[in-house]
TrEMBL record:
InterPro entries: Aminotransferase_I/II_large (IPR004839), Class-II_PLP-Dep_Aminotrans (IPR051798), PyrdxlP-dep_Trfase (IPR015424), PyrdxlP-dep_Trfase_major (IPR015421), PyrdxlP-dep_Trfase_small (IPR015422). Its EC number is 4.4.1.13. This is cysteine-S-conjugate beta-lyase. It holds the Pfam family Aminotran_1_2. PANTHER family: PROTEIN MALY. Residues 63-391 form the Aminotransferase class I/classII large domain. Belongs to the class-II pyridoxal-phosphate-dependent aminotransferase family. MalY/PatB cystathionine beta-lyase subfamily. Keywords: Aminotransferase, Lyase, Pyridoxal phosphate, Transferase. Its cofactor is pyridoxal 5'-phosphate. Gene3D superfamilies: Aspartate Aminotransferase, domain 1, Type I PLP-dependent aspartate aminotransferase-like (Major domain). GO terms for molecular function: transaminase activity.
Length: 395
């Protein structure tokens, strides 16, 4: 279906539904009357096949203690092979309630107090908070920002930071949140070879792996150099971003190395005593096997791309000095307003003048990004038009 048909069928007004994005604005903005483009979830219902799978399971089964459903494992393995050319073994699969919890468990399981953890900034703020909450040092290595507004790694600076701080763990993000960069094989090979040389464990957050809106294909860290780094690598993902189901608390944690996997599972057993989430497994199995779900995802990506192109073209036509990063992946626009606004003006401009709740740049790496905002494009084109017009009318 075309983008208008998709929006008509799946868009939902989430006000009054206890949505964190729509009704939880007071958590960050002390008000609830803004157009919310901050929390990274969608304003679209998931495909009907997933809804039906959940309902059918609940109607047919008691919600008692269960074991992992083999059909769920087969669905995940098939999805990775079909969508991402990535061959995984069922024995590699374990889980966490969500990706961030999985990262926090890895930090606790594989590092000690005051150990250093590296990230490439700007980056999703929960990485920093997960490390600081665990009393680890966060080592943020700034990426370079090229003339074409693409981000790239300063590999010499990355290695120097690892050596200087004796980094034990690197949290990789692919596609990268917030800048929308999809990492190439060559880029990851250079990053991971540095980590391997210095015995740094790699955690690859691949939660946006299905949300590819540009020309560069997603490549899982598991496949880099034919799996050369899998002995010190843990990959994580979830259907929560791809199919807008973050309230189903389940993430895949993929650990090829048996020793690492056993260590992770032993730590997990200390903090999380539960069986499989049967509702999540039913939803994932439907999402990863039903043709309707794959068609839904294709149509969703067309909506996100249309929204990005509209905002990108209209903003730059009127504000040519804006720096908008290419969105190869995710549904998040990363925009630098420094040519038009001072850092101290950003909050007032978006909240009070435009009536928009964005994710502010400093949430992704501090004051160096105070003139940036991240805008969530997984909504209706009408909402994107409202936001774009508000920016142009008030700048």
């Amino acid at each position: 279906m075309n983008t208008a048909e998709f929006t008509k069928k799946y868009y939902i007004d989430r006000r009054g539904s206890h949505s964190r994005k729509w009704n939880g604005q007071q958590l960050k903005f002390n008000r609830t009357d803004l157009l919310p483009l901050w929390v990274a979830d969608m304003d679209f219902m998931p495909p009907q096949c997933i809804q039906e799978a959940i309902c059918n399971y609940v109607k047919a089964n008691p919600l008692g203690y269960t074991m992992t459903n083999p059909d769920y494992l087969k669905a995940v393995i098939s999805w990775y092979k079909r969508r991402h050319r990535c061959i995984i073994d069922g024995s590699w699969l374990t889980s966490a309630p969500n990706v961030i919890t999985g990262i926090m468990w890895c930090i606790a399981a594989f590092t000690k107090t005051n150990d250093a953890i590296a990230v490439l900034s700007p980056v999703y703020g929960a990485f920093d908070s997960s490390a600081s909450d665990a009393k680890r040092q966060i080592i943020a290595v700034p990426m370079t920002h090229n003339e074409d507004n693409r981000y790239a790694v300063d590999y010499a600076a990355f290695e120097a930071a690892i050596v200087k701080h004796d980094v034990k763990l690197f949290i990789h993000c692919n596609p990268h949140n917030p800048v929308g960069h999809v990492w190439t094989l060559e880029e990851m090979d250079r990053l991971f070879s540095i980590c391997q040389q210095h015995k740094v464990l790699i955690i690859s957050d691949e939660i946006h792996q299905d949300l590819i809106t540009g020309l560069k294909p997603f490549t899982s860290a598991l496949t880099v150099s034919n799996g050369a780094y899998t002995d010190r690598l843990i990959a994580m993902s979830s259907l929560s971003k791809s199919f807008n189901m973050a309230s189903l608390h389940h993430a895949e944690v993929i650990i090829p190395n048996e020793e690492l996997r056993n260590h992770y599972n032993a730590f997990k057993a200390l903090v999380y005593h539960t069986d499989s989430d049967v509702i999540a497994e039913a939803a994932i199995t439907a999402a990863y096997t039903h043709p309707e779900a794959e068609a839904w995802l294709t149509d969703l990506l067309a909506v996100v791309k249309e929204n990005y192109d509209y905002m990108y073209n209209k903003l730059l036509a009127n504000l040519p000095e804006l720096r908008i990063s290419p969105m190869d992946g995710t549904y998040l626009a990363w925009i630098d307003f420094s040519a038009y606004l001072k850092p101290e003006e950003i909050h007032d401009f978006f909240e009070n003048k435009c009536g928009i709740a964005p994710s502010f740049g400093e949430w992704f790496g501090g004051e160096s990004y105070a003139t940036f905002v991240r805008l969530n494009l997984a909504t209706s084109l009408e909402n994107i038009k409202i936001a774009t017009d508000a920016i142009l009318q008030n700048i």
